[in-house]
Write a structure and sequence with these properties.
Helices cover about 70% and strands about 5% of the residues. By secondary structure, it is mostly helical. The protein has a domain of about 160 residues.
Amino acid sequence: MQGILKYIKGDRVIWMVTILLAILSVLAVYSSIVTLAYKYQSGNTEYFLFKHTLILFIGFLLMFAAHNVPYKYYSRISQIAIIIAIPLLAITLLTGADINEASRWLVIPVINQTFQTSDLAKLALLMYVARILSKKQDEIKDFKSAFVPVMIPILLVCGLILPANFSTSAILFTTCLLVMFIGRINLKYIASLIGIGVVALGIFVAIVYNSNDQGRVGTWKKRIESYVNGNSEANYQVEQSKIAIATGGIFGKKPGNSTQRNFLPHPYSDFIYAIIIEEYGLIGGVVVLFLYLILLFRGVRIASRCSNIFGSLLSIGLSFSLVFQALINMAVAVNLFPVTGQPLPLVSMGGTSIWFTCLTLGIILSVSRETETESSAELIENNSETAYATH
């Protein structure tokens, strides 16, 4: 064990939280894939268990590799990543695999694995925004020199994600606003942007409500109407989720004893939090929420201790993005938000989404690792100076 631990650097609490979420993921996914297994694998749940465990294992390898890369390298990597991500988003929008009336995926040849390009775009954009803000600190209050360069990639990426995935676009845009605020962009520019966003949202809702489109816009319309009206027939997913939560009680039905997994659409991804509460009770649900809040706290703590502006913005932006997505998923499960299709990071069954989540955590750990190294070096230097002065 000691031999393994010497290779694992960075915030140990984040490592521990990640391992706990991964263990919970294996248990919850194995319990909730019964209907999926009967539909595609003649009831062979072990197939999906092995596949999901393998994906998690690869994710941890990516996380380990990412945390060993000095975080300052990600500044340059972000330039390459954003150049790759934008054309991929455009290709996905035009020719991507159409699943649930949304073109969000490209199919990777040979391995035949679907790849959600917005996952790459989220990571690339947040790294790139952190880079620009850190480079522009001497002129950060200027509209032309700082605000415009950072807004162009944000509007471009969020605009390309929006038609197929409104919730991801909104989460990413909100996270970028937070990073801009912390990066000291002029508040009046941020306020005006929020105002424009509110107006645009109002126009968007009005268009959706008055549209007869049966495609993606029609899906948005149904979700909004179902949430507002509380129509149980049209809001089937949330009703089944609420039943799962209500029957779970405080202590739950115990692992593997879920009933609503047989009725709830996508219990292994979008609504896995409801299955967790059903089987592990309110206590289990609170523990999961607490684990994500710990991730956010540690991310903010790493940012506050990092002496480099890019590292600070990178840590807080990526931490907030992950936890905000988790909170949205949990809010949907308890009917505080309309259905969005956001997975629970690192817990929901997935492929590339888990890998990009692990990469994100690895980058945060990279910032933590180098911050700890710098702090240790500074402490040794101070102790040496003190000893020399005393001598």
